[in-house]
Amino acid sequence: MFTKILIANRGEIALRIIRTCRQMGIQTVAVFSEADRESFHVRMADEAFCIGAAAASDSYNNMSRIISAAEIADVEAIHPGYGFLAENSHFAEICESCKIKFIGPSSKSLALLGNKTQARKLAEDAGLHIVPGGAIASEEDALKLAHKIGFPVIIKAAAGGGGRGMRIAHNDISLVKSLFAARSEAEAAFKDGSLYLEKFIENPRHIEIQIMADDYGNIIHLGERDCSMQRRFQKLIEESPSPVVTSSLRNDLGRAAIKLAKAASYSNACTVEFLLNSNNQFYFIEANARLQVEHPVTEMVTGIDIVELQLRIASEDRLRIKQRYVNQQGHSIECRINAEDPDNNFKPSPGRITYLNMPGGPGVRVDSHVCQGSTIPSYYDSLVAKLIVHRRSRKEAIACMRRALSEMRIEGIKTTIPLNQRLLASPSFQRGEFDTGFVERFIAE
Prior knowledge:
Blueprint: E1 4-7, H1 11-24, E2 27-33, H2 40-44, E3 47-52, H3 63-73, E4 77-79, H4 89-97, E5 101-102, H5 107-114, H6 116-125, E6 133-136, H7 139-149, E7 153-157, E8 167-169, H8 172-190, E9 195-199, E10 205-213, E11 219-231, E12 234-240, H9 247-263, E13 268-276, E14 282-288, H10 295-302, H11 306-314, E15 331-338, E16 340-341, E17 347-348, E18 351-352, E19 355-357, E20 364-368, E21 375-376, E22 383-391, H12 394-407, E23 409-411, H13 417-425, H14 427-431, H15 438-444
Parallel strand pairs: 1-2, 1-4, 2-3, 4-5
Antiparallel strand pairs: 6-9, 7-8, 7-9, 10-11, 10-13, 11-12, 12-15, 13-14, 15-22, 16-17, 18-21, 19-23, 20-22
């Protein structure tokens, strides 16, 4: 097992990794930008290095500075968390060349799954159903493919996810208009403006499967998460298990995800994402070769620390958990608390937190890096906290989450707490009757 690792990230995920490392007796090294000098993860780590100015390009996305910090601190491995360099195959390759273990897949697997066009081809060859579509290099390519598969279509960034670079088009004019915006956003987020086009499946469920794989060919899945409660491809509420996934369907989804992992010679944590239609037909859409923001709901229902498994696998331990022993117990829901104003078109709301009260009680978990007096900078993702609950049934989990949200107070900035409260109070959500378009319709109404 490692004795010291560097965490190439910030905020709640950096703190989340530090906590598991402390339990395992692993020393941690934090890196931080000038804007994060007073951040909690900096204080919690055993060592910390400032790697640049506030802009991510000068700090958290600056590979040479992160590698320099790793070499100075003499670490054995780097955990990338999510976002920033977590799915950057070039960064993983640099780590490999510097004899620093990248806590994630190999650079080869990362390159294969990180590019959505290649991942689609791999999934199709492995026998998974994929949404009709393909890579596009020009406006002419896009129009030709759109006419072939039929509108509406969705444009996606080939080199990344998280909703960046995505646009829906219902006709030729909107397609041409959206291409430039999607390419610009993809270049800014991933330094790669490559795009691909898919048939847009209207009103599906967004279901993802968490898998874990080691270097010896052992692969298991940890069940599904339902991430259909989203706005503009950004997830707001996630839960496990899904209200609509049966045991049989779960097994089918799990087998499909494992097939893809085997085809990619994958090792470590990965999330394979599917769209599920009303007839329970599912289509592969992408694989996220990293830890997901919403991983806590899987941890709560399985009792498995996913970060601990990542560390053990990266240190060349065998995966000791057998599939037959993976069981989902109870129900877990996560609400993302973002520094945004839902009543003002989700305008970012950076600033200083003047008052903070975090909820507690049975079944409540809060993953956050903030305290009273913390400043939410404008340079990064707006996530302030993840509120997670776990109870015996979905009905009890919803009641627990509504209670926890009512206790949670964050003043000085606007947050998505009121929106989460309204969504959980919706009869449709409580019945489990929603799809990926539900939140947009709810807000419009």
